[in-house]
Specification:
By secondary structure, chain A is of the alpha/beta class. Chain A contains 17 helices and eleven strands. Helix content of chain A is 42%, strand content 19%. The chains are: A alpha/beta, B alpha+beta. Chains A and B meet through helix 1, helix 2, helix 3 and helix 17 of A and helix 8 and strand 13 of B.
């Protein structure tokens, strides 16, 4: 398949694996921030191929994982309303709130629909003027432009029955929070390619200098990640602190000015709570005052719903690479992919879920 | 052969509650539509049940309900599935199909024209397989209490002599054969779902697997240890179920699993893993390793197995777990899904 097979060439991939293993003098602890990259690493077994040369710490870059419990509960409260069609990306459907998830709410009669784009949700609103259509605007900087565009278009067209439940998070403040921790083990970062496609990577240059740590912006195909890791290991071995861009076919230093402009128009930076980590100042987006009427939290008065997370769960320390999932007292007991207590067990690419699957293998082999 | 609908449908263009009420309308539906369409001596008795002749040897029985939405899709409709699905479940028991039953639950308002299209498909599939529907049932539910049409078929088949296919016979060393490229049915259905429609030349792979299974069993006999059609949950779920049922481990090679370009493309865009996408005309065979190449040739010589591959082997390590060796030389666990496969945000 064109534009895919080029980035999955087994011969080139094996060469890169050999290069990284030869070049690395110690198991460098590096973090890939983005959940999409974690998914590729695990799906192709790249993490195992690099064992001993690179220790991959899976970062908090899965929007499903870090959406706070209380947002899910607010989503459920809105979705249960008679007049609401609640639309969402597919993988938010199974994320548990404090009592249930959207799939179960759907089973009990809530009108919850999966869409592939916020513009599909807007189209539903146009088609059903008698209903309230709400879109769960989740994600990092990557999904922000499309979500902003949907709100902007609804505003332009005067679509009154459309709103968004916003749970947007930003990558650089999360990296800052991780690096502020004196016990952090992380020595380098794979920066998220699609976030940087939108935002560029100037912010990462500042972070690199502040924390004396190298970054490589990488894509999502196996060869992208292997090449990105090879570049990162080069930087680490040579002790160089800089930001390099592997994903040049998509990312430029300034990002996409049109996308940034629409995000800037509709959203402003706000404090945000991350599931498993807690509040991080200025780490999220909320709608600007003039678009506030499109904010589902205000429209349906659910902003007061708040929830505490499980106290047993050590997701925060796992997301920071300080502890392994098996160190958690709840791992595999109260907490499993079917009944997750914390973020990294929710999504299949979360560190706990990945460990859970591999532990099954090890136990079976023992 | 073109078969014309035997019932004048001008009077009612849609199913009414009366069609399931047991009165004149029901009677007409059965006498004028179902009986002539599914025409065979067992049904012609118009009795409460079918009285069947004595059978030789061991029988297999299976039942399945069909609720696919939408009921018409590229490459077939719910009627094709209801015949093929149940014939295939019999085939997976090593059984030649003898009889089917057919129960329909229709929603008030379902177009008779559509019902006719479905019945015409059923008739065609039965003729191809040379299997009669010997008894049936029709119920109508109020509007809003169903999804147009639900079908149930039960199948009775005769297990071939010298054949014993079941999960418990799977053993370490067995070769795993896959009959053809995967995920076509699931992607064909997705391509016409509301809000998701995309253009594709893909068609459902719905097919009666018995002819190719029979050829395989004739050639392999007791060296065929188990068969499984990879329907809901796809190849990954079928392998996991069998690994657990047989207490063995399974190792498959990513590169060996045939996936067509269109399917790969759709899966990339939709964020789905083809291993977990449904098939309606593909099966897995677990066979003695020394016969694997020869039996693969048998599959290749049949139109339904032309693209069959050996995709892996059964091992004694990690019982109950399916492991995949990736094209990159890595390895990962292929787990069962916790629920339905949901596309990822990023």
């Amino acid at each position: 398949m064109k534009y895919v097979d080029e980035y999955r060439d087994p011969r080139l991939a094996r060469e890169l694996v050999r290069y990284i293993r030869r070049r690395s003098t110690r198991p460098w602890p590096v973090m890939e921030i983005c959940g999409g990259q974690t998914h590729t690493l695990i799906r192709y077994g790249i993490d195992q191929l690099l064992e001993g040369a690179v220790t991959l710490i899976h970062g908090p870059g899965c929007p499903v994982c870090v959406t706070p419990l209380e947002k899910i509960d607010r989503a459920l409260a809105i979705a249960r309303r008679q007049e609401v069609i609640f639309t969402t990306f597919g993988d938010m459907m199974r994320v548990p709130g404090s009592e249930t998830d959207l799939l179960s709410a759907k089973a009990r009669g809530a009108d919850v629909r999966m869409v592939y784009s916020p513009l599909d949700a807007l189209e539903l609103a146009r088609k059903h003027p008698e209903r309230q259509v709400v879109f769960f605007a989740v994600g990092f900087e990557t999904t922000a432009p499309a979500n902003a565009m949907a709100v902007w278009m609804a505003h332009q067209e005067g679509v009154k029955n459309f709103s968004v439940l916003v749970s947007h998070v930003l990558v650089p403040p999360a990296i800052q929070a991780l690096m502020e921790d004196p016990e952090t083990e992380i020595k380098g970062f794979i920066a998220p390619g699609h976030v940087c496609t939108v935002m560029g990577y100037q912010e990462y240059e500042t972070l690199a200098q502040s924390y004396r740590i190298p970054f490589v912006v990488a894509g999502f195909e196996p060869l992208d990640l292997l090449q990105g890791l090879a570049m990162l290991v080069d930087l680490l071995e040579e002790g160089r602190v800089e930001v390099q861009n592997q994903y040049t076919r998509s990312v430029c230093r300034e990002g996409n000015p049109h996308a940034r402009a629409i995000v800037e128009e509709v959203f402003e930076v706000a404090d945000m709570t991350w599931r498993g980590i807690g509040p991080i100042p200025k780490s999220g987006l909320c709608l600007r005052e003039r678009y506030r009427t499109f904010d589902a939290e205000f429209r349906f008065e659910v902003a007061t719903i708040s929830r505490e997370e499980s106290s047993v769960c050590i997701a925060g320390e796992i997301l920071q690479g300080k502890k392994k999932p098996v160190d958690c007292p709840a791992f595999g007991r109260e907490c499993s992919p079917e009944h997750p207590l914390g973020a990294p067990m929710v999504s299949s690419e979360g560190a706990c879920a990945a460990y859970y699957a591999f532990r099954r293998l090890q136990e079976a082999e023992a | 052969m073109k078969f014309v609908c035997p019932m004048p449908i001008e009077e009612y263009d849609a199913v009414t509650l009366g069609h399931g009420g047991g009165g004149k309308l029901t009677n007409r539906l059965i006498r004028e539509l179902l009986e002539p369409t599914l025409n065979n001596p067992f049904l012609a008795e118009l009795h409460d049940g079918a009285m069947l002749p004595r059978a030789q040897g061991r029988l297999a029985v299976t039942t399945d309900s069909y609720v696919v939405s939408p009921p018409f899709f590229p490459g077939g409709n719910i009627g094709d599935l209801a015949v093929h699905g149940t014939l295939n479940d019999l085939a997976m028991c090593g059984a030649r199909p003898l009889y089917l039953t057919l129960a329909m639950i229709l929603e008030e308002g379902f177009l008779l024209q559509d019902l006719w299209r479905i019945l015409a498909s059923i008739r065609q599939r039965l003729e191809e397989a040379n299997v009669p529907v010997v008894t049936g049932d029709t119920k109508v539910v109020e509007r809003g209490k169903g999804d147009g049409v639900f079908l149930n078929t039960t199948g009775v088949g005769q297990i071939l002599d010298g054949v014993d296919v079941r999960p418990a016979r799977i053993q370490p060393g067995d070769a795993i054969l896959l009959s053809g490229p995967i995920a076509e049915h699931g992607i064909a259905i997705l391509s016409i779902r509301e809000g998701l429609s995309f253009d594709t030349a893909l068609q459902s792979d719905t097919a009666n697997l018995w002819p190719v299974v029979e050829a395989l069993l004739d050639a392999g006999g007791l060296d065929i240890h188990a068969l499984r059609d990879a329907t809901r949950g796809g190849v990954a779920s079928a392998l996991n179920e069998l690994a657990q049922a047989s207490g063995t481990g399974m190792v498959i090679q990513e590169e060996a699993i045939p996936v067509r370009e269109e399917v790969r493309g759709a899966c990339e865009i939709l964020g789905l893993d083809p291993l977990f996408v449904a098939n309606e005309g593909r099966f897995l065979a677990f066979v003695a390793p020394e016969r694997a190449d020869e039996l693969l040739e048998v599959l290749h010589s049949h139109p339904l197995g032309g693209e069959a591959r050996i995709i892996g082997r059964v091992v004694s390590d990690h019982p109950g777990v399916v492991r995949m060796e990736t094209w990159l030389g890595g390895s990962r666990v292929v787990d069962m899904l916790s629920g339905e496969q949901l596309p990822r945000i990023c």
